[in-house]
Design brief:
Layout (H helix, E strand, L loop, with lengths): L1 H39 L1 H9 L3 E6 L5 H12 L4 E7 L1 H12 L3 H5 L7 E6 L6 H12 L4 E5 L2 H42 L2 H9 L4 H33 L13 H32 L8
Antiparallel strand pairs: 1-3, 1-4, 2-3
Helix pairs in contact: 1-7, 1-9, 1-10, 2-7, 7-10, 9-10
Length: about 290
């Protein structure tokens, strides 16, 4: 009875170690996948921020409704305008009243605000140089009195987008190195629990390749399972926050998730294979006395 219980106990311990490894690999690959989604959407995020930079075209007081409509159509027909929104004097007054918390028109006796058109530009035209050129172009329209946009904010946004891009690349490389080390240590610990099995196989004359083969096959399978589990978890997370991520991450862009899935699978297999190969070789070279340390 005791003889039968011993192998069962060992099998349970081995199964537990591989299960722990698979869960650890899944969590790490999930973080790698999340990082991949952020990186692949970094340009989309930068575009989203840039395209929310507004340019206000303040219209002349005597502009007719037809002239406003013509101006909107002309702006929409250009290649640099993403969207336009006409704001009449009454709407502008209501918005300012909400911001101030009081009725300023009652105090002044009239509405001093002018009608305007809020223009959102395509991301490629939101740099300071392009905005300076567009400012001159907008002023050529006879309906426009003046142009208003935050020049300093535009410069700050463009500078910060570049800095964030470089920081993301740096931290991505650093985190990938850390995550790879974590997977490597997890696999080494799981193989450590089977070091005596490796030594027994050596004693009966098994070759290094023969010893490595089952460990590598099993490790690769767990890497694949971990990658698939990580991607399912990532996809569920993205769907759960689809509304909050609108404009920043495109949930319907399956190309991005496809790339992340392939990258996770490749990393899961390569890191698992490499870590197992190195770990098994280490225990193959150890003498019996060294296995106790």
């Amino acid at each position: 009875m005791a003889g039968k219980a011993q192998p069962q106990k060992l099998n349970k311990r081995i199964l537990k170690s591989y299960l722990t490894s698979t869960i650890s690999i899944s969590m790490i690959l999930f973080l790698i996948g999340l990082l991949g989604v952020v990186l692949l959407n970094a340009e989309r995020l930068a575009k989203y921020v840039r395209e929310n930079i507004g340019v206000t075209l303040v219209l002349k007081d005597d502009v007719l409704e037809k002239d406003v409509t013509d101006l909107e159509e002309a702006l929409k027909a250009t290649g640099f305008v993403k969207s336009v929104e006409y704001i009449d004097k009454e709407t502008a007054s209501e918005r300012l009243e909400k911001e101030l918390g009081e009725d300023f028109t009652g105090f002044l006796g009239y509405n001093p605000l002018l009608a305007s058109i809020d223009v959102k530009l395509n991301a490629a035209f939101t740099n300071p140089e392009s905005l300076n050129l567009l400012e001159k172009k907008f002023l050529e329209y006879p309906q426009v009195k003046e142009i208003s946009f935050q020049r300093d904010l535009v410069s700050i946004i463009n500078e910060n987008v570049k800095k964030i891009g470089l920081i993301l690349i740096f931290f991505s490389g650093l985190l990938l190195f850390i995550f790879s080390a974590l997977i490597n240590n997890t696999i080494r610990i799981s193989i450590y629990s089977q070091r005596f099995i490796i030594n027994t196989m050596l004693l009966v004359g098994a070759t290094d390749r023969f010893i490595r083969a089952p460990f590598i096959r099993r490790s690769i399978w767990y890497g694949i399972i971990g990658a698939l589990a990580a991607n399912v978890l990532l996809f569920v997370l993205m769907l759960s926050y689809a509304t909050e991520l609108t404009g920043i991450i495109n949930i319907d862009d399956f190309k991005i998730f496809g790339l992340v899935l392939i990258a996770d699978l490749v990393l899961g297999v390569l890191i698992s294979w490499g870590s197992t190969y190195v770990a098994v070789n280490k225990f193959i070279r150890l003498k019996f006395d060294e296995l106790f340390y």
